[in-house]
Amino acid sequence: YESIHYFKLGHTGNEGPPGFPQLLHYFNRMLIDYGWGLIPAGLIGIYSAFKLNKKYTCILLTFPIIHLLFMCSAIVNFERNILFLFVVFGIFISLGLLFLYGKLSEFIKNSFVKTAVICCIIAVILSLMPLKTLAYRYNPPIDSRNIAVKWVNENIPANSMLLIPDELYFKTSDLRKDIKIVTYPVYAIQKYASFQQKFYDFANSSGEYYVFVPTVTHDERWPEKHIEAENLNPLYELLFYKKLNSEKLILFGHKKLNLQTPIIIDPIFSVNKVSSVRF
Q1: How far apart are CA 74 and CA 9, in angstroms?
Q2: What tens digit of pLDDT does each residue of 211-265 get?
Q3: Could you give phi then psi for residue 176, rounded to 5 degrees?
Q4: Fewest CB atoms within 10 Å of the CB: 12, 29, 83, 124?
Q5: What SS3 state is found at 259?
Q6: pTM of the model as a whole
Q7: What is the biggest distance separating any 2 CA atoms in the chain, rounded to whole angstroms?
């Protein structure tokens, strides 16, 4: 299946012409992460590694090169498939920087001048690095799930039951241990009527409990999913506001939950308290 997926069917939003365009795509991804300052250092590192030991360098480079060529021959271009190339190239970047330092030590004997030159090189490399990308990695945006953890730990009573949808990818290990966690699949509730009834029967028999209710949407790359996603929000309203006596306690997040490709940052969901069945 994966061969057909990568080489024939493709994947909307993550595909391109095979061959050189795919190579440029992956190179651009590496450029975004390393910047123009470190790419030359990595190439110098490959050169210095060949000078040190051709045999071991060829062994180290053989698999990454073959794998990269293989991925470039596909239609689909997931960056996750070449993550290990970043590690390998990082090794060569280190070798390249050591090689440059050694050459500087050979030609510049004065320690003050050498330090000044090294500082200039570092300044040039830093100026060419993707600082926005680095800032994003070290200072990520606030996520609604992290805020919800703090709220739940401070506001939900001990020995309460909390229902959390699988699609939220919620890290439950940070919640208090005296809260009983039950997960439920949004997609199954959406797609199967029998599961809707099963879920309602479970909710009906569970007494007082708390539940995360997400606001969902569809992926624009698959317009045919629009009706499914839009129908799910009324389903939640039916389950938690009409059939069950549900009280919305608080709302978190700013982005609707995408069922086809779940968003990573700041999904919208409410914490509801369900106390009894509404007849």
Answers
A1: 10
A2: 888 887 766 665 555 555 566 666 666 666 556 677 888 999 888 877 666 666 8
A3: -60, 145
A4: 83
A5: coil
A6: 0.57
A7: 88
Cα–Cα distance measured from residue 198 to residue 135, given in angstroms and rounded to the nearest whole number: 46
- CA 255 to chain centroid, in Å, comes to 15
End-to-end CA distance of the chain: 48
- Which one-letter DSSP state was computed for residue 9? I
- In 3D space, the residue among 277, 264, 255, 134 whose CA is nearest the CA of residue 202 turns out to be 277
C-alpha separations of 93 from 62, 103, 267 in Å: 18, 15, 37
Q: Are 105 and 51 in contact (CB under 8 A)?
A: no
Distance CA 270, CA 240 (A): 11
Residue 181: C-alpha distances to residues 47, 108, 171, 240 (Å): 55, 64, 11, 18
Interacting residues of 210 by C-beta distance below 8 A, sequence separation 6+: 152, 156, 160, 161, 162, 163, 249, 271, 272, 273, 274
Nearest alpha carbon to residue 160 among 207, 195, 203: 207
d(CA 55, CA 30): 26
